[in-house]
């Protein structure tokens, strides 16, 4: 997996905080946390601030910045007249849940957001993180995401890990085991999301379309292409915007 081709973690953090390809976004709304379970309604022409947390899938390895799924989601919201600037992205190639926790701390994100996405776990699956440890770390990440969303659980979206067993990169590997392991980690993500009140968005079935369509995989043979990320957005957009007018 990508974790095998990534520099040391310290270098990752320097790239994240310094001149990485993702731009920092300063949201327009206030930074106060509201622990009410009913978030304010967001209408078109209202401002929307967005924080994306994750690994290479969120960072957009293999595609340009504008083609990554956080930027495609922001573009889709903008096309529907929501006032959204570039998302704040805290993510990098090879990151596990533990790395993301450390990356969030190093990034010192202090502002609050109207919308938070979390996609993590593929590198934990690849590196063999034990399920108990991973569950505890995902619990921490979802809890932090809810805090960044001003305490509004419904404005946090945990996206499933794509099934990378179908990619050219997995050729020669035990594809059946990869698929089964990804499913297990996704079951943890789904269970923790439900336990903590976050939304779980399953894009895994869409990711499997890459088995028969080479255009859905980036040039590195592993990560999704811009076309695949667009399919993800088509899948999740309605679920996300539905929470703008309901709790």
Helices and strands in order, then pairings?
Layout: H1 9-17, E1 50-54, H2 56-59, H3 69-79, E2 88-91, H4 97-107, E3 115-119, H5 122-127, H6 131-148, E4 156-159, H7 175-196, E5 199-201, H8 204-207, H9 226-242
Parallel strand pairs: 1-2, 1-3, 3-4, 4-5
Protein described:
By secondary structure, the protein is of the alpha/beta class. It has one domain (2-242): Rossmann fold, CATH 3.40.50.1110. The protein has 9 helices and 5 strands; from the N terminus they run αβααβαβααβαβαα. The protein has helices spanning 9-17, 56-59, 69-79, 97-107, 122-127, 131-148, 175-196, 204-207, 226-242, and strands spanning 50-54, 88-91, 115-119, 156-159, 199-201. It has a 5-stranded parallel β-sheet with strand order 2-1-3-4-5, sandwiched between helices. Helix 7 (175-196) links the parallel strand 4 and strand 5. The N and C termini lie far apart (38 Å).
